[in-house]
Design a protein that fits this description.
The chain contains three helices and eight strands. The longest helix is centred in the last third of the chain and has 44 residues. The protein is an alpha/beta fold.
């Protein structure tokens, strides 16, 4: 069982390592809408936003700092020029919201469940316990099978004599 749990720990932690972006506590993430963004979009430009392709976790607070001279909207938020607005990302979702500071008029949001200590322990137990039980069964069956094969060989040798 201990070997199975050890393998479960290794497998789970390697997997969680690759999911590192969500292995954190909820945080406040600030995005600045720079001055001139509305004019850039009106002339067919695409502003470079640092929030593109960001993976959020449940409970993150997205703060929009509108430094533009125009009012902007992000989903249900109306952010007047020179003010800040905040959006609490409360549930896992992968979709897009209406966004006036993007040329496409939409912003994709990828919100995932955060990986907590409880999630890690559950992953380890779900991988380690069945593997440990399987190894325990094999550790009993394999020696018994080898003993049976040895007895069969002894019987065959005795008959040949």
């Amino acid at each position: 069982m201990a070997l199975g749990l050890a393998v479960g720990i290794v497998l789970s932690e390697v997997t969680f390592y690759f999911l590192g972006e969500t292995a954190r506590e909820p945080a406040t993430i600030t995005m600045v809408v720079p001055a001139g963004t509305a004019d850039l979009i009106a002339h067919g430009g695409q502003p470079a936003l640092p929030i593109e392709n960001t993976i959020f976790v449940n409970g993150d607070v997205l703060v929009i700092d509108n430094q533009d001279s125009a009012n902007h909207q992000l989903g249900p938020l109306w952010i007047p020029a020179g003010t800040k607005g905040q959006l609490v990302l409360g549930e896992a979702q992968n979709g897009s919201v209406e966004c006036s500071f993007q040329a496409s008029q939409y912003l994709g949001l990828d919100v995932r469940d955060s990986l907590t200590t409880n999630t890690r322990i559950t992953g380890i137990l779900n991988a380690g316990l069945p593997l440990g039980a399987l190894l325990a069964v094999y550790s009993v069956l394999l020696p018994a099978k080898k003993e049976e094969e040895k007895e069969n060989q002894d019987n065959v040798s005795a008959k040949n004599i």
